[in-house]
Amino acid sequence: MNKSELIEKMADAADISKSAAARALDAFTDEVAIALKNGDTVSLIGFGTFAVKERAARTGRNPQTGATIEIKASKNPSFKAGKALKDAVQ
């Protein structure tokens, strides 16, 4: 399912226009991104938790040349599914 299909399903399920569903989805994703940027987590009980995981700096290898390279530390968004979502998928 892509974004436009999700918007269409949201509009049908909530009995709202597609433009309203698109604005709601955009607002949701924007606010999650802002919260993660500020170091917060976003927990939706039953659905899951969005958080930021930090990866430490490490040494890697260039597969083409075999030379060692330093990989910088980074922060990556992560999602951990909640119990209700896990149960719905099984």
TrEMBL record:
GO terms for molecular function: DNA binding; identical protein binding; structural constituent of chromatin. Keywords: DNA condensation, DNA-binding. GO terms for cellular component: cytosol; DnaA-HU complex; HU-DNA complex. It holds the Pfam family Bac_DNA_binding. PROSITE patterns: HISTONE_LIKE (PS00045). Belongs to the bacterial histone-like protein family. This is DNA-binding protein HU-beta. It comes from Imhoffiella purpurea.
